[in-house]
Amino acid sequence: MVGSRPNIVLVVSDDHGFGDLGFRDTDPAVSTPHLDALAADGRVYDNAYVTAPICSPSRAGLITGVHQARWGSHWFTDSAMAPEAVPSLAEQLGDRGYRTGYFGKIHYGADEVGSRACPPHHGFETSFYGLAAHSMGRLHYLHHSREHEEAYGDAAHRHGVSPMWEGTRTVDCERHLTEEFIERTIGFVDVPDDRPFFAMVAFNAVHNFTWQLPQHELDARGLPQHPDFDAETNDYLDWYDGAVEPNLENGREYYLAQLEIMDREIGRLRAHLEETGLAENTIIVYMTDNGGSRCNYGRNTPLEGSKYTLFDGGIRTPMLISWPGVTEPGSVSSSLVSALDLAPTFLAASGRGVEDGALCDGIDLRSSLEDASAPVHDVLHFDNNFQWAVRTPQWKLRYVDPESPARASILQVEHTDIGQGLQLSPSVPTLAGLDETTDLAEQHPDVVQELTAMHDRWLAEMKESAQALLA
Q1: CB atoms inside a 10 Å sphere around CB 442
Q2: What are the distances in angstroms from CA 399 to CA 70, 194, 311?
Q3: Which pLDDT score, from 0 to 100, does residue 2 have?
């Protein structure tokens, strides 16, 4: 009942565009009735940020509530699951009497089999997952088996067709993963147990390659089948370039089809919680791991930029929180919040907040959830080594090393320009929140100096923390 320790469901999608929600009304082709209903039932955070514009470091911070830079995680090249000295959210909720389940994609870093990155080894009692780090960040939507691994040959690791993991053993799965993840979550919810539960659902939707749809879904939308990577193709980059925007015919339609399936499955889970009487005492949070990917036909309207960039299109997330009896239905907050805030919020909801002296870079959102106008963060920091940014309620300072090889690589492979040099953007009273088409650095050198100094101090703290944690 309301007032007892709530169940918690955290849903994380992959590369979902900020503007690709029905209630945003940016594209009539977007249909997300169940996410729209979740927004109508709770709070929409329009200025919610993840900690990185790519999945691995973003997810590493999310699962702990501690900024991943504290253990030297910044980009694909150095990202990793937090060391044991930094407990995961699942470990902490388990210590507080919650049963824990993980269903979805894993990609914190190298993520070796049996390592701490695997859910059974960082606090999840029940788990069904795929190690996407072994397949260039991808899980095939339809095929996961030894049979398909052998059939794809050298191309298997590019499409992630290896068997899935159930706890510590491998299992085949030939069902659309979006449906399978929710089916597993429902099974977890239904286990007779007096303990409250924490269920984390980490979709691979709507990450590439979105044409991997069941035939009945293709038929329903009048979409053609599209072949996967040809193992005999010599130059993978050329093939990949032909499968990203603007080169893939029906690319936006495939993306929207995967989005609709994910939305439908989220609706199925919510309906099950209603039918079983659990909904009234369950917190549900929806967010995505980074901005929508332009190469994958996601749109971040009205934000500038996309995945890989520190424009807001790369780091703003459509965060929706429903907490019956706490959040005001249909409410919107423009306060600066971070994905790191979820951990201390969930821990507080469990009846025992963050332990004294424990590392935590998030802020308990309960006051904000009760009052949409309540401020949360004064400043947020982002750092990928070759690019960094500082965000305050009034400004955003962003820097990209124009000589960085990463910048050139992203432009070549992902068709995404991350920008270059220093830019100061002002806040504006619109959904965009910032005018990132305007650079006021020359007009406000004092602000540039102040924000740069703030970031330097933050970076020094992160480096000192990393030295201690990794010693």
Answers
A1: 9
A2: 20, 50, 10
A3: 44
Say which residues have a Cβ less than 8 Å from residue 54's Cβ, sequence separation at least 6: 75, 76, 290, 307, 308, 384
| Cα end-to-end distance, the chain, whole Å | 46
Sign of CA pseudo-dihedral 355, 3, 199, 33: negative
- Of 78, 83, 163, 79, the C-alpha closest to 122 is 83
**Does the domain made of 7-377 have the CATH classification 3.40.720.10?**
yes
Residue 123 and residue 100 in contact, taking contact as beta carbons nearer than 8 Å = yes
Cα separation, 307 vs 310, in Å, equals 8
Structure-token pair, residue 40: 């109508």
Residues 6+ apart with CB under 8 A from 120: 127, 167, 168
Measure the CA–CA gap between 190 and 379, rounded to whole angstroms: 41
Sheet holding 395-400, edge to edge: 380-383, 387-391, 395-400, 421-426
Q: What is the pLDDT of residue 32?
A: 98
pLDDT, averaged in runs of 10, over the chain (471 residues): 81 98 97 98 98 98 98 97 97 98 97 97 98 93 96 87 97 98 98 97 96 97 89 70 88 98 98 98 98 95 97 98 96 97 98 95 96 96 98 98 95 92 97 97 98 98 96 85
Sequence-distant (≥ 6) Cβ neighbours of residue 391 within 8 angstroms: 49, 336, 379, 380, 381, 382
Residue 317 CA from chain centroid, whole number: 8
Residues of the chain with CATH 3.40.720.10: 7-377
Question: What is the three-state SS of 398-437?
Answer: EEECCCCHHHHHHHHHCCCCCCCEEEEEEECCCCCCECCC
Closest CA to 284 of 369, 187, 367: 369
Burial of 254 (0-12, 13-18, 19+ CB in 10 A): buried
Closest CA to 266 of 418, 29, 41, 460: 41
pLDDT in tens, 316-369: 999 999 999 999 999 999 999 999 999 999 999 999 999 999 999 999 999 999
Among residues 94, 86, 59, which one has the least CA distance to residue 70? 86
Give per-residue pLDDT as tens, 154-191: 888 888 999 999 999 999 999 999 999 999 999 999 99
Q: Are 206 and 262 in contact (CB under 8 A)?
A: yes
**In whole angstroms, how far apart are CA 385 and each of 66, 69, 76, 79, 462?**
18, 10, 11, 12, 12
- List the Cα angle 268/46/406 in 5-degree steps: 95
